[in-house]
């Protein structure tokens, strides 16, 4: 029993179960399909956010270019969907039927060779993970082996985000340009725009997200997680304990990229299009905000952060169209100034001690109250209120931060 | 030249920073099972010498051979895997991790990414952590966050982290800096215990402490070796008195 409890505590299953119930039961029951689809879209960003928890929170390496990997995963999926949507019959009014409409508009008369493998779904699905991971490997291997880190790494990732955006927009015949890839309709003949398909895709997205959190949690609790924290603290000590520090950073960065790629693919499937506006610098920084608001040491917190910031974005932009950007900025600045560890840090440092103190006070009150209850029943409530709550325990540093 | 009998053979080692030779044509041999103390005035190149051996700084010329393997072109983590452990001047421990985790991370298994993913904290690892923790006097502090330890305990913890790797060459940079008299005594005992079956190089300024632990003393001055030998001989050397010990 105690072993089970320790196991649950170690993997923080309680918070994970709570999140699963919220995502898989409460939200689908409470929201109509339009809103639920919107939540599904937000959840695709949560893949990036949990990747950032690994890279930034645990690895101590801030990447401002995670949109690149989200975009690559999204484009890989969108290329398959676009090819399926561009069958010769539905594109017969084009001068070259059977190729995506934007190619036709750009006087391209033949499917480019790098598009051809994307006719195969298995290839596209593999590319969703492999392409972002490969690019992440190239960037991080080149940087970390040369011991580039910190601000320089952040700037380089940002440059990559900019380069990829410029490339996508500039090569509009091959990529759909600034409009991106639109009118994605079916997946192997299955119409992804119907309500039932949206429900199914939402649940697939939730399942993948929960699976990703479990994977990351497993890594965090193992030796790699300990090493990442150790490296963030004293990189030289880790190096002179016989570890090739760069390899661990490369691994984490690639993991985050792969997760972001999956998120991007789910985005293309659920939203039905992919465009450069999810690749560049601004979305990449927004994704960092999600992790910061949720708590960069907490996987579950990052998901809540993503949902909250996006819900705020939607609400503000619907209710105060002129003000919403300022309100978003206020939310971000407020949260990072007041709670540097984000919502999860707030939970650990305030809610948990408060709850423990309350329970302790109640227990003391019932112990004190019982003998005197017969004589002075009124006193029990005042005793509960008067008995001082035990001093709030300090947050136990990083080891407890990963709610 | 090969020196099979020595644990560490440094020959004609030179490192220059923009023309300034921090280590100048230095030759030094350390025996197996030897505890060597390096002393010298500030800026003599003592810490730089340790940096060169462990790979933190690259040599400009010369050779460093450990167990007859040339180190000068080898990556840092590979030198560690070969059996070289180095303690830094300021205690370099992972403040956010527990004492147990600090020692566990230093256990020489699962050093590649895949190895670390598959690494399990077996009873063998736990037993080893316990043994080392007892040795450095932190046996009852395994669950304490390392940042909460006293300065002396942090120094011991870092020595313990090195002992986890069972290095054949142990290098300690000012291990008793900032320690109380009692802690110094305990550290001296610890050093005498751990110098069995391995070579140890210690950099230290405290002459009483040096006298107590050293098998042999090397005096460095301006990147060169000024004198070498037993403590009494070195202390009587007029050159050493001139530049370092004072009259």
Specify the CATH architecture of the largest domain in chain B. 3-Layer(aba) Sandwich
Task: Walk across the major sheet of chain B and give the strand order.
Answer: 6-7-8-3-9-10
Largest interface: A-B, 27 and 36 residues
Question: What structural category do the secondary elements of chain A indicate?
Answer: mainly alpha
Major β-sheet profile of chain A: 2 strands, antiparallel
Low-confidence stretches of chain A: 372-403
Quote the beta fraction of chain A: under 5%
Distance between the termini of chain A: 22 Å
Radius of gyration of chain B: 18 Å
Secondary-structure element pattern of chain B, one letter each:
EEEHEEHEHHHHEHEHEEHH
The first-to-last residue Cα distance of chain B is 39 Å
Low-confidence stretches of chain B: none
Number of helices of chain A: 17
Average pLDDT, all residues of chain A: 86
Global structural class of chain B: alpha/beta
General form of chain B: globular
Explain what this protein looks like in three dimensions.
The complex is a heterodimer of chains A (403) and B (247). Chain A has two domains: 21-338, no CATH class; 349-400, no CATH class. Chain A has 17 helices and two strands. In chain A, a hairpin with a 2-residue loop joins strand 1 and strand 2. In chain A, helix 4 (66-85) packs antiparallel against helix 6, helix 6 (121-145) packs antiparallel against helix 12 (245-271) and helix 13 (281-294) packs across helix 14. The model of chain A is unreliable at 372-403 (pLDDT under 50). The longest helix of chain A is centred in the last third of the chain and has 32 residues, at 342-373. In chain A, 41% of the residues are buried. With 403 residues, chain A is mainly alpha-helical. Chain A has helices spanning 2-10, 13-30, 33-58, 66-85, 101-105, 121-145, 150-170, 172-175, 195-221, 223-233, 235-239, 245-271, 281-294, 299-319, 324-338, 342-373, 379-386, and strands spanning 186-187, 190-191. Chain A is 71% helix and 1% strand. In chain A, strands 1-2 form a two-stranded antiparallel sheet. With 247 residues, chain B is of the alpha/beta class. Chain B has ten helices and ten strands. The A-B interface holds A 219, 222-224, 226-227, 229-230, 233-234, 236-245, 247-248, 251, 396-399 and B 54, 56, 75-77, 80-81, 85-86, 88, 92-98, 101-102, 104-106, 108, 110-113, 116-117, 119, 121, 145, 147, 158, 161, 165.
